């Protein structure tokens, strides 16, 4: 028998040795019936959108790896379109097919663990994003992220671990777990089964190292390109990454033998209008800035 709903609620307030904050209904034992289908409590998906067709991309699998149930996501061809099998621990925007928000989480967890099975013909993934509201900037700061691409197939229950990469020494206040077995190009019958999803371990806050003289990014907001101005003690190699709020690298550039003081231009034309993290790494350290593309 898995944890009850009451135990899950209590575990959201407490931290245990070896494990951090629980994932709401991470054992998928709790479901709510809505008409002719059932939804996993705490996890948003597309069942309401596909209900008129009598087909569903999120289903209650049984038996679970342990306990009675597991989460069964499978992309379905409905008419001429393949509907992706998405699930978010929180709320999903059915217009953008991206998470709207997640659940409260104040722990610096080390990794997400659990059991899964999957098969896909495209580029599915499971991602985790820890954020904290920045009242000064009126936006969310990325504290940590983790993403695991689903490749090939796993045809029996197998343990997985997705480690989190930290961008800040602060504690988060929110977490989003996003599951998509298909990625950008869904194929009918791509699937993932999940069970016993939980966080494991904790990471201490570590101050972020910075480039010696800091960096300046302009224009910000930007449209077609951004310019990065900074200084470093000695010439050396520079790596520049632009990451979206799901932790996915959308652009990366490497510069060799960069002099001590320099301005580098990065083309942003064609990127979606959104907020990104710009990470500049030199031999002297790393600095991260927020960049808005409009």
Question: What features would you describe in this structure?
Answer:
By secondary structure, the chain is mostly beta strands. The chain has 2 helices and 25 strands. The strands form 7 sheets. Strands 3, 8, 11, 13, 14, 16 and 17 form a 7-stranded antiparallel β-sheet that branches. The protein has a 5-stranded antiparallel β-sheet with strand order 4-5-18-12-15, with no helix packed on it. It folds into 2 domains: 198 residues, Jelly Rolls; 79 residues, Macroglobulin (MG2) domain (Immunoglobulin-like, Sandwich).
Notable characteristics:
seven-stranded antiparallel beta sheet; 294 residues; 25 strands; mainly beta; Immunoglobulin-like; Jelly Rolls; disordered N terminus; single chain; 53% strand
CATH class annotation of the largest domain: Mainly Beta
CATH architecture descriptor text of the largest domain: Sandwich
Termini gap: 50 Å
Count of DSSP-assigned helices: 2
Number of domains: 2
Task: Please tell me the overall pLDDT.
Answer: 84
Low-confidence sequence ranges = 1-20, 207-212
Strand residue percentage: over 45%
Helix/strand structural class = mainly beta
Radius of gyration, CA atoms, in whole angstroms: 21 Å
Order of helices and strands: HEEEHEEEEEEEEEEEEEEEEEEEEEE
Q: What is the helix fraction of residues, given as a range?
A: under 10%
| Main sheet: strands, sense, barrel | 7 strands, antiparallel
CATH superfamily of the largest domain: BT2081, beta-jelly-roll domain
Return the CATH topology of the largest domain.
Jelly Rolls
The coarse overall form would be elongated
Give me the count of strands: 25
């Amino acid at each position: 028998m898995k944890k009850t709903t009451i135990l899950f609620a209590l575990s959201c307030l407490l931290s245990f040795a070896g494990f951090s904050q629980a994932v709401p209904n991470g054992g998928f034992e709790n479901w709510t019936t809505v008409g002719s289908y059932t939804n996993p409590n705490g996890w948003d998906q597309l069942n309401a959108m596909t209900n008129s067709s009598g087909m569903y991309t999120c289903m209650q699998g049984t038996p679970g790896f342990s306990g009675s149930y597991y989460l069964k996501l499978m992309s379905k061809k409905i008419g001429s379109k393949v509907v992706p099998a998405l699930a978010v621990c929180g709320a999903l925007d059915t217009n953008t097919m991206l998470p709207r928000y997640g659940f409260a989480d104040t722990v610096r967890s080390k990794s997400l663990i659990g059991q899964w099975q999957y098969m896909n013909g495209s580029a599915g993934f499971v991602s985790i994003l820890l954020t904290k509201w920045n009242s000064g900037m009126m936006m969310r700061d990325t504290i940590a992220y983790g993403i695991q691409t689903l490749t090939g197939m796993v045809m029996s229950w197998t343990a997985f671990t997705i480690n989190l990469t930290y961008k800040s020494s602060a504690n988060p206040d929110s977490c989003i777990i996003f599951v998509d077995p298909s990625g950008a190009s869904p194929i009918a019958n791509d699937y993932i089964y999940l069970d016993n999803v939980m966080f494991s371990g904790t990471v201490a806050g570590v101050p972020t190292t910075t480039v010696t003289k800091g960096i300046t990014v302009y224009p910000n907001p930007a449209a077609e390109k951004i310019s990065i101005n900074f200084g470093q003690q000695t010439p050396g190699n520079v790596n520049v990454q632009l990451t979206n709020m799901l932790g996915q690298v959308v652009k990366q550039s490497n510069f060799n033998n960069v002099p001590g003081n320099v301005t580098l231009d990065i083309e942003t034309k064609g990127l979606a209008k959104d907020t990104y993290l710009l990470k500049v790494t030199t031999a002297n350290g790393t600095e991260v800035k927020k960049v808005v593309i409009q």
